[in-house]
Structures
1.
Amino acid sequence: MRRILGFALWMVLVFSLTACSGQGVDYSLSSAESDYQASESDETVAEDASGVESAEETGATPVAHADTHEDEGDYTWDASMVIPVILNEDSISADNAGVNVEGTTATITQAGTYSLSGSLTDGQIVVDTKDEEVVRLLFNEVDISNAASSAVVVSNAEKVVIILEDGTRNQVSDASIYVYPDAETDEPNAAIFSASDLTITGNGSLTVNGNSNDGIASKDGLIIAGGNITVNAVDDGIRGKDYVVVEGESINIVSKGDGLKSDNAEDAAKGFIDIKSGSLNITSGGDAITAQTDVIIADGAFELQTTADQNDQIEEAVSTKGIKGAANVQISNGVFNINTASDDAVHSNGSIVIDGGVFEISAGDDGMHADATLTVNGGEINIKKSYEGLESAVITINAGDINVVASDDGINVAGGNDGSGMMQAQGMRPGGGMGRGMRSDDTAMFSGEPPADAGAAQGMTPPQDGQMPGGGMGQETFSANTNYYLYINDGTVVVNAGGDGLDANGAIEMTGGVVIVNGPTQQGNGALDYDAGFKITGGVLVTAGSAGMAMAPDSSSSQNSVLINFDTSMAAGTPVHIQNDTGEGILTFAPAKDFQSITFSSPDLTTGSTYVVFTGGSSSGTGTNGLLQGGSYSAGAQYSSFTIAEVVTQVGTRQGRY
C-alpha cells in the first residue's frame, strides 16, 4: 500500500567547545526546523491482530475516510422563510403545515428552517421527514425537558443542523428512565438523539443533560462546528457512530462513560474522530476521546481526565484512556493536559504519530502506547508520571523535546497487550504476553508480531554472538525479537526511570539528538537494556544508573562510547567530569538519582585520545537536565583515566552486561 509519510528534518547537534581548561561542551540542540517534505513510499506494512495496517518507519497515515455530510449551504438560509415554533411550557404554537403539534410534542415533517424559542417542561421536538433537503433548527433561548424520553429526536431526515443563535443560552434534558412502547425498542437513548446526520453550530451556548444514557448521539455522522457546548451524561457524552468532526469553540463534557466517541466497527472508512480546532474539557469514567478507527487532531486545547477506580477497572474491564484510536492516532498540533489515573494517556492498537503539540501527561499506565509503531516528529512531550513512558514495537524519534518520568521503563520497545501498569498496581507481576492485562475494549491488541522487516530498511545489525537477553527482577518479560526497534534520529530525550531507562526487546539505533537517562538504582535493571544490539552513529548519549546490569552501545557503532563503573554508589547530584588530555572538558554531568555507572557517547570521544574521569567538585556552568555546560569545573577527586582504543571502552570493575 502506498503511503504519504512526513519526515521531520531538524538541524544537527551543535557542539560549542570552549577553549578554557575544564570548561564543558554545549550539548543543546538548535531550535531551527527545516520544512517537512512529503514523499511517497512503497514501504512494507504489517497487519496486527485487528487487521489494521501500520507503516513501519514513521507511523501510519490514517486510511482514507468516508466523506462527511458538511456542506457550505448548511449554514445559510433565507430569513424570510424561517418558520417560528413557540414553546409555551405545556403547549406549542406553530402555524405551518410542516409542523404537526400534539400536546407538547412538535413533529417537523418538511425540510426547511425552523426557529424554536421558549420552554417545554415535559415535551419533545421530533424531526421526521422524507425530504432530501436539510432541516435547520434555530435554537433561540430554548429549554426543553422530557419526563419519559429524549428532548430532541431526529427519527428520519436527510440531515439536521442545530444552530445556536448568537448570544443565546439553550438547554435540553431527557428522562432518567425512558418509557418505550415495547421491550424490543431501545431508541432513542440520548437527550439529543439523531438517526440521521447531525450538525451543531452557532455562537450561542447549549447545555445537554443526558440523565438516562448519552448526552448527544447520532447513528450517522456528527459535526460540531461551533457553539459553547456543555454535556453532562450518565453514559457517553457525545457520540457519532460514523464519525465525529469538531471545529467548534468550546466543548465541556462530564460523563460516566466515554467522553467523545465514534464507534462504527463495520466500516474501516468510518468510526473516526477528526478534531480541527476548539477547546475540549472532558472528565469521563471511560475513555475521554475514543474512536473505533482513527483519531486525527490538527489543533486545539485539551483538558482530559479519566477517573475510573483501578479496582473496578480490572473487575469490570473498563478502558479509561485519554485519547484512543484503535487503528491510528495522528496529532499535528495542540495543547494537551491529560490525566489518566489508571490507564494510558494516548493509545492505539495500531500506530501513533506525533508531529507537534505540547503535552503534559500523568498516566496510571503508559504515557503513550502503540501496539505497532510510535513516531515523534516534533512537539514537547512531558510525561510527569507513568508506569512506562513510551511503549511500542517500533519507536522512532525524529525530533521534539521528550521528558519522561516512569516507575518502570522509560522507553520500552516490545510487543504485547496493554495494561502492565494496571496489573502492577494490583500487586501482580508485570510482563509481556499472557502476563499483561487486557481490557474488554482492547480486543484488537497487537498479537506480538511487529511490523515485518521493520529494522532491515534501517540497516540494523543482527544480535551479537553471546549477547544476553534482557530481564531481571521487576522487568518486563517479553522475549527478544529482531523486529522490535528504537530509532533516535534527533531531538532531546530525558528519562527518569525506576526500571530500565531505554529498554529494547530488540535493537536500538541512534543517529543524532541528545539522550539523557537517569536510570534505576536497583541492580536488576539498567539505564540501557537491549537484546539485539545498540548501534550509535551520532548524537550525545549520557546515562546514569545502577551497575549490576549496566550496558553501553555495541561494537557495531561508528561513534565511540565509554562505560564507567564506580566502586561504590554515589549520591544524586554528584558531578562526574570527563576531560581530554589537554584539560578541556567534554562532559560534566550531575545525575538526578543515586548511581554507580555512567555511559557516555559523543563525537568528542576520539580514537587514540586519553581522558581523565573526576567525581565530585563543582561547576559554574549552567545546568540543563543534569548537564552542566559552559563555565569552569573545579576538580574533585580523580577516579580513573582511559584511552580510546576500541569503539566501546570499559572503565572500572566489570559488572553488568557488555
2.
Amino acid sequence: MDKRFFLALALSAIVIVLSQMIFPQPKRGPVTPGAAVTDSVARQAQASQPAGSAATGSAAAPGSATPQPSATGDSTTPAALAATPATPAVPPRVVPVATGKAVYGISTVGAAPVSAVLEEYRPLVKGGRSSNERVELARPGEPLLRFRLAAGGDTIALDRQPFTITDSSAVAGRGGPLTLETSLTTRSGQPVRVTLTYDFVPDAYAARVRGRVEGVPRGTGHLLVDLPRGLRSQEADTLDDQGHLAFALKPTRDNATSIGFGKLEPGERRIEKGPFTWAVTKNKYFLVGLLTPEGDSSFVEANLVGGPRTAKVATSAAGTVIQRLGEGGTFAFELYAGPQEYKQLASMGRDFENANPHGWFLQGILQPLSTLIIRLLLWMHATLNLSYGWVLVIFAVVVRVALWPLNQSAMRSSIKMQRLQPELQAVQERYKSDPQKLQGEMMKVYKDHGMSPLSPLMGCLPALIPMPILLTLIFVFQNTIEFRGVPFLWLHDMSAKDPYYIAPLLMGATTFLLSWIGMRNVPPNPQTKMMLYMMPVMMTMFLVNLAGGLNIYYVVQNLAALPQQWLIANERAKAGPPIVQGTPIKKERTVKA
C-alpha cells in the first residue's frame, strides 16, 4: 500500500487519541502520601475542617464543642476547636465593599470573604443568552474562604470567632482599609489577639490582605486558609462547567499544576509540598486565588481532600493552604476573586495568567502558544474595534497567509515525490536482494532529482502543520472568558458548541471541498480516494461538540486555502507524467502562486 495511506491512518489515530485526552473519563487519581511540613499542622488541617457557614450563621457558636465533620466525612470532636472567645457570641454581619468591578462581602464572624458579586458579568442561560442577574462566585451557604490558626498544639477555627471592625474606610467608599480584630483564649489558657486588614484595589478584583497574631509562641504558628470547596456555576452548560472544577498550584520553581476535583476520590487525602507562589480554586471561567507577596515563600504546603459525590462529576473538594507566620506573628497574601480575564490575571504578576494550566505533557509548548494567541486576539479586538467574531475571521486568514510559503514548499515537494515514485519502485524491485546496493541506488535517484530521503516528510507537512494550532485553539476556546457569551452570526455564544450544528457541518463540507481540489490531477489511488471521504467525516466528529467559534475558524481557514490548492493542482498538471527509469529529466518550471 501507499505510504501515505499508513500516514493517514496514523493521523486518524492521533486525532482519536487527542479527543480522548481532551475529554477524559473520570478516573482515580494517585494518592500522594508525602509528609507535611509539620505533621501536626497537616493533621489538624484535616481534622478541623469546618462545614458550617459563618455567612449564614450556621456555624456553631464560638467555644462550643459540637461535633464537626472532618474533611474525610467522619464525625469527630477535635479538642483543638474548643477555643474560648473573649467576647460573647453575636450574629454575623456581612460588610459589603465595592471596588467598581465587584462587590465583596466580609463577615464579622470569621473576618473572611463570604461572597463576591461581579458587576460586569451575567450568568448564562440556555441558548447562551445572558440573564439580568450578576455573577456570584460563592455557593449558597458556603463562604469563599475560612481562616484557622495552628499553634502550640491547638487549631483555632477563626470562622467561629466574632470580630470587631476597627477601621471601615473601605466601607465608606474612601478607598481605605477594612480592619477587623478579635481576642480569644485557647484551651491551654493562652490569650491570643488576631488583627486582619483588607486593602481592596480600585477597579480590580484583588485585595491585599495582611494580619498579625499576638500570643502565639514564636516560630510555631501557621495560618490555615481553606479555599472554596467549589464555585457557583453560572454557565448554560452546568455539567461542562463543573467538569472544569479544579485546584491549581504554582510551585516557586516549577510550572503551575492543576488537580481536578475528579482526580480526588471521596475522602482521598493529597498533600502537595511547597513552597507555592499561589493557589486557586477555579471552574471554567472564574476563580478564587491566594498569592504570596513578591519573593515570599510562606505558602509551605497545600492539603487537598476529595469531597462526596452524588454523580460522576465531582462537584466538591476541600483545599487548605498552609502559610507560615512571619516574625512577630505576621502574615500577608493577596486575594483575587473574579474572572479569568487575561489582562486582570497578568496584572497580578507571578505568572498568575497561567492560573488555568493546560497542555498536558506539552504544557511548556502549548500554554505559551495559547497565551500568545490570546494576546494577539485581544490586541486585534482593541486595535480594529471589531467584535471577537470578525477578529477570529481575520485571524484565520492571517494564519493561512502566514503559512502559505511553507505549505507551498511542502506541496511542491509532494508533487516531485509523486513523479519520482515509479523510478524508486523500479530500483527497489531491481536491487531487492542487495540492501546495500539498493540504498546506494536510491540515494543516487534522490540526488539526481535534487531531493533527499527526507523529502517525503516534507510532503506530509500540510497535514501536520495545523495540529499544534488546533490543539492550542481548543484550549483558547475552552478557557478564554473574553469569548464567553459573545454572539456571532447565528451563534449566541462563540465559546459553546453550535446548537444547530451548522458550523461543524460547514467545516466538514469545506474540508471535503479542499481535499477534492487538492487531489485533482493526482494519479488514481484507492487509499487516497478513501481519505477524501474519511478526513471530512473524522474532523466533523472531532469538532462537533467543541466551541462554535472554533468551527467557524476552520471554515474560514479552509476557504482561505482554496486558492492555494487550486494553483497547486494546476501546477501538478503542468509538471507532466510520472518519471520512469531511463526517461530524460527536463528542468521543471516553477509556477509562482
3.
Amino acid sequence: MTDAKTGEPIAKVKVIIIGSGRSATTDRSGQFLLQNLAPGESELYITTIGYGLLKKRITLKPGEKNELQISLHQEAAQRLDEVTVTAGPFQQTQTNAASEHSLNKQELQSLSMLLIADPVRALQALPGVSGNDDFRSEFVLRGAGFRRVGFFIDGLFLPENPAHTAYGHDNAGQISILNTDTMASATLLSGAFPSRFGDGTAGLLNLETRDGNRIKPAGRIAGGLLSSSATFDGPLPGKGGAWLVSARKSYLQYLINALTNDEGRFDGIAVDFTDAQAKAVYDLTSHHQIGINAIVGWTDFDPKNSKLVFDEDEVANSHSRNSFAYLSWNYTAGPRFAAQTKFFNILTDYTNADVDHRPLQEGKVLHRGVRSDLNFTFHPDHRMEGGIYLREVRGSGNEITYRSNPPVSLSNYDRSSNQQGYYLQDTWSNKRLALALTAGARIDRFGLTDETVVMPRAALSFAPFENTRIRLGWGQYGEFPEFMHLYGSRGTQNLRAERATHYNVSIEQLIGSNTRILIEGYDREDKSLLFSMNDFLRRDGVQTFIDFPFRNSLKGYARGFELSLHRRSANRLTGWLAYSYTKTRLIDDVTGLRFVSDYDQRHTISAYGSYRLTNTFNLSGQWRYGSGMPMIGSSNDLNHQFTVLSERNSVRLPVYSRLDLRASKAFYFKRSKLTILGELINALGRDNFRQNGRRVDKLLPLLPSIGISFEF
C-alpha cells in the first residue's frame, strides 16, 4: 500500500473483505496478508483516516496467490490507470520557483477550521504568513496586505477576493466561497515568482480544484455547529471523464448572537452564506480533454437576525454574489508539448444598505476573457513556457451618504476597458550539475490607466551536495489599480501601477526522504504604492487633520528571513515548525511621513502537527503566534480616550497567540465511513484582539466545536 503521490508505503491501512467479516491491516512496509480466501470474486474495502475510500474487486482462481499494488489518494480515487510516482513530498508545482510552500488535501482539511471549512484560512499556518483576525480569511504575507497577493483558482486570476463578506465593511466576517472538500491543493509563492503569473506585487496564491471520482459514484456529507455541506462525484458514461457537485450552507449568525455582549455590540458583523460548485472533465481522446467548472456564492446579512445596534450610515443590510466559471481545453501532444486554454467569466456584485434599507454602497465588476498557456520542450535541457491573457473588464459603483440633507453621492461610475498579458520564459537544466536556470519576462497592459508594464524575471537553483539545494530568485512585478482606486469616493483617475522588485535566496537541506530544513532570506523593494489618508496627526505639537485621495506616493521595503523544519509523511508525525522575522519601512513622498507598514509583524511562529495513531483515530493541532501588528493610523480611542499621535502606526496591538486542537475518529461500515470530528479553538482561552476602527475588540474565546462527516 503506497501513497499515490509520493510512493511512500502507508501503515495502518484497513483492508476489509466485504461480506466476510475478515480484514487485515498494513504494516510499516505497507504490506498486508489475507490467507485462505475462497476462490472467486471478492470486493475489497480499503481505507484509513486521512485518505479517501477505495473499493477494489479481485478474482482468485483455486490455488492462486494474488499480489496487489494499491495506491491510496487523499481523496477518492480519480483515475482508472496506474499511478506513476514522480513527485517527492516537497516537489514544486511551478518551474524553478524561488520560494514555494504548498498544502496537500489532507493538510487543507486539517488546517481548515471545523466551524467553517475554508481553504484560504489554512494558508494562515504557513511560514511567512500572518493571520491575526479570527473573523477574516485574508492574511498578511511578508508585511504586505492580502490585496497585494495575486489570487488564482486553477491558474486563473480573480481580481476580486472571492469571499462571503459585507463588501466595503472591513469589520465584517469573511469566509472564502471555496469549500475545502472540492480542493486538491494550495500553493503559495512568497517571492520572485515565475513569469506565468502577474497581478500581484507581494506574492501569489493558487488553489487547485479537484476532479471527480473516475471509478464509481461517491459522496461526502458533513455537518458542524455552523455549516453543513454535501459533495458528490463520479464517472461520466464510458468512464472517459468525471463529474463533481458540491453545496454548502452556513448558520453563522447563531454564533455571533451568542457572542454579542449585553450592550448589543460585537467585534464585527458576520454573514450567512450559501455556495455551490459543479465541475466536469471529459477525455475526448488520449490527447484532448475538455472541461467546465463553475463556482457561485451568495451572501446575506440581515439585522432582523442580529442583536447588533447600528449607527447612521453604517452597513446593516448586505447582499452579494460571487460567480466564477470557465470552459477548458487541454491538448497534450506527448512529453514535449502541451497546451491549455480557458475561457472564463467572473462576476462580483453587492449592495449594502443601512438599517432603514437605504442604499449606501453598491457595485458590480465583470471580467471575461481567455487565457492560454503553452509548454514546449524543444531540447532535453530546455523547457519553454509562454502564454497570453486577454480580458474585458467592466465595473460600476455608487456610494451615498445620508449625513447631509439632501443625501450626497460620493461616487457614481460605470466604466469598461481591457487588459492584455503576455509571458515567455525558458528553463535550462543540467542533471549532471544539478543546475537549473530560468530567464523570462512578462508584459501587461491595462486600458483604464493606458499603461504598459514590462517585468523581467530570473531564477537559479543548484545542488552543491546531494541533499542540499540553493535557490536564488529575482524579479520585477506590477499590479494595476482597481475601480475603487480610480473612481471610488477617494479615487484618482491618473493612478499608475504599483511596482515591486523581489530578491530571494533559500537553502534547502533534506534529512532522509521526508524531512527538510529550509532557510529563506528576502528583500522586497516597493515603489508607487497606493496611499490614501483621512486621519488626525500631531505635528510640532499641533493637532491637524490630513485628508487626501489615493495616489502613488509610497515607497519602501520589506526585509526578513524565514526558518522552517518540515516533515511530510504518510505515517507517524507530519507537520512543521517555522519562525519568520519581517521588518518594513515606508515613506510618503508628498507629506514626508515615515512609518512601518500597516501589516508590520516582526516575529511570527507557526506550528502544525498531525499524527495518525490508528487507522481510525487522528490527532492534529496548530499554534500561531505573532508579535503585535500596528494600530493603523495616527489616532485611536484606546482606554476610551481619543488620542492623536505624531507618528503613524506607532502603537501596536497586543501579542496574538492561538492554539487549536482537533481529534478525528472514523467508524467503518460495509460500504461507507463515518467520521466524528472534535475541535477546540483557542484551547488556552487567551484574549486576542484586532483593530476595529479606532478601537480594539476581542477575538474568539475558547470555543469547542463538533462535526460529523459521512463518506460512501
4.
Amino acid sequence: MKKVVVCLLSIMISSVCWAGPQHAVSMHGKPKYPADFEFFDYVNPNAPKGGVLRNASFGSFDTFNPFSIKGNAAPGIGFLFEPLMKMSDDEPFSLYGLIAESIDIAPDRKSVTFTLRPQAHFSDGTPIGADDVVFSFNTLKQKGVPQYRYYYNDVEAAVAEADKKVRFLLKESDNRELPLILGQMPVLSKKYWEGKDFGATTLDIPVGSGPYKIKSFSLNRNVIYEKDPNYWGRDLPANRGFDNFDEVQYDIYRDTTVAAEAFKAGAYDIRIENEAKKWVSAYDGLPHVIKKEVHHGLPSGMQGFVFNTRRPLFQDPKVREALLYAFDFNWTNEHLFYGLYTRTKSFFDNSDLAAKGLPTESEKRLLSPFKGMLDERVFTTPIALPVFDTQNPRPQLLKALSLLKQAGWSIENGVLKNEKGEPFEFEILLDSSGSSAWERITLPFVQNLKKIGIKARIRTMDALQYKNRLDNFDYDMFVMVWGQSLSPGNEQRYFWGSESADQKGSYNFAGVRSKAVDALIEKVVRAQTREELQTATHALDRVLMYGFYVIPHWYSPVTRMVYWDKIDFPKAEPMQGLSIMTGWGR
C-alpha cells in the first residue's frame, strides 16, 4: 500500500509514476518517444554515409582536455566523450539512453540508478563500467571546471552497485532536474585518466567513447576527426541519422572576416553567420552557396556588455543603469544590422520564461521576502529599456547624467568625476577573433559615453589571453552571451549564485552576490511543475534585470546558416535548433 501511495503522490506532482528502469526521462511530463522508437523525428535515418565535413573555428587551442579550467580546448573535442544519456532536440528537456540503457529514479527521488549497456566500450576497447562512471563523477566534481561543482552540489555520493550499475545518492528529493543533469555527465576512462594531472593542459590524444577519434592535428591550425570503426553505439535509436561524415575537420582562423572570405573561396563547408552585414550581402553571386534561416524555440539567453561589479566603479546600481542610456540599440540595428535584430528585454527572452508586464501574485509571494533589498520597480514597473530617437540622443544622455549625479558623479571641464576628483574611466575587453565586427558595434557606444564625460578604452586580446582574463575576472566590461534552455535549473547557480562570484572560471562574470537571487535560483531548481518553473524564472528575471548587471544587446529567433550545396540537412527544424551533425554529403 505504501508504494501505491507514493505513486499517487508522484502522479499528482509530475504526471509520471516511475515503476522501475526507464528508457528515457523528462524534466516535466513524459518523454515523447516510446521504448521501441527507432529514431528521432528530426533526422534522416537513411542519410548517406561518407565524405568530409569541413568547419571553421576561431582563436586557438592548446589542450584536448575540455573539462579543465586551464587552456583552450580543441574545437570538436566533444566528439570523443559520450554522456550517459542523449538529449532529444524536439522536446524541452528529455534524455534517452546512450551509455546507459536505462534510468531508475527512486519513488522518493532520493536516488537515481543507471544501468549501463553491456556493449559500451572506450576507444581502446575496454568496457565502460560503473567504476568509470563513479570516477568521472568524483573527478569532474573535484577537479573539473567549476560548473560541475555547482551541477553536482546536491549529490551525496556515487556508488558502483555492480559492474554495469551505478547509483547516485541525492541530498534532496525536490531537485527535479538533477537526475537529468547526471544523465548528461560525460563518462571518462578511469584506466586512462587515473594518475594523470586532470587539471593540466595536454595534447596527448585521450581515450574516448564517442563516434569519432582524433586522426591528426596541427597546433592552432586544424584538428581532424575520423569515424571510429569500432564505435559501439552507431545503431542505437538515439544515434540514427547522426554522425554521417567519415571525417570532420576544424580549421582555425584568427579573424571572422578572414574566415568569411575563406568560406567564399570554398575552404570549408558551413558557416553560422552572426554578422548581419555579411548575411545580407557577403554571399551574393555564389550560385552553389545556400542561405538558410533555421527557426527554433529556444530562449534568447542574454548577450550584452557585462559590468564587473567586483570593480568599485560598477558597484552602484545607479551607475550601471546610467550606462544603459548610452547604448543606442535603435541606431545600431538600423545602421549596422539592417534591422534584422530584436532588442533583448529579458534573460529568457523569446520564451514563456521571460517576465512580462507586472508581477503576478505568485511572483510577488516569491519576491516579497526581499522587498527591502530590491529595487522597488521589481514590484511596480514592467521591465523596459531606453528607446533612443536616433536623430536626437540628448534626452537619454541627460537621463544618464541625472542618474550619475545621484550616484555622486558630476562633469568638470567635460570630464565626469566623483567626489574625490577621480575621472570615470574603464576598459572594454574584446576577443581578437571577432574584433573588427565588435569594434564597429562598440565604438558608437564609446562615443556616447564620451559625450557624458566618460572615457572608455577598447582593448583587444588574443583568445588565450582573453580566456585567462575572463577566468580570473580581470576586466571592467566585456561582451558575454549566457545561453538559456527551455528548462533552466542548476546552471543558474553557476551563472548568478553568490558562491560562484569568487570561483575562478565560473560564469558569474558580473559578480552577482544577492540573497534574493540565491533564493530565487533555488526556487527555479526545485520547481515541481512547469507552472512553478515559469513563476520562479519570471521572478528571477525581474531581479536580474533591475540589478542592471548587463547592458542588453539583441537576439534573433532564427539561426542563419550558409553552406555549400555539396552537403544537405533534414527538413525538420526542432525546437532546440538544427544540429550540424544530422547533415550529410550529397
